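Appendix B, example 12.
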Amino acid sequence: MTKMIMVGLLALTAASAAQAGLQLGERPISRTEVISAAKKQFAEMDGDHDGAVSPDEFERYREVQNARPDRGRGLTHIGRSWFDKCDSDGDGRVSQSEAVARPLGLFDMADVNRDGVASLAEQSMAMLFVK
């Protein structure tokens, strides 16, 4: 479960880890930051601005992400299974609420003391289970 938490945190949100300032292990990360970054990344993925990410929009975003110098690595990386994991109602589209719910749920699991911040200690503990 903790490995899933870290994988989820690594797959979080926003344009790129450097742009969002969300690099795992560098500083505490707040729940508010996760929500904001997830919403920002969703807006970038929703190319036609219809309030949902289609499979085609998801694939286009992955292509752009992979073309970045850092290949979109870090907390903002969107993996190939992101779409299937986020489409919780199975309608073939990911809404903003679905896109935010997954990383937020994983963040909440990592925030062991429930203070709304993934401290460096909590991040370090979670990273132990990723290796």
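Residues 2-10+29-128 form a domain with the Recoverin; domain 1 fold (CATH 1.10.238.10). The longest strand covers residues 29-30.
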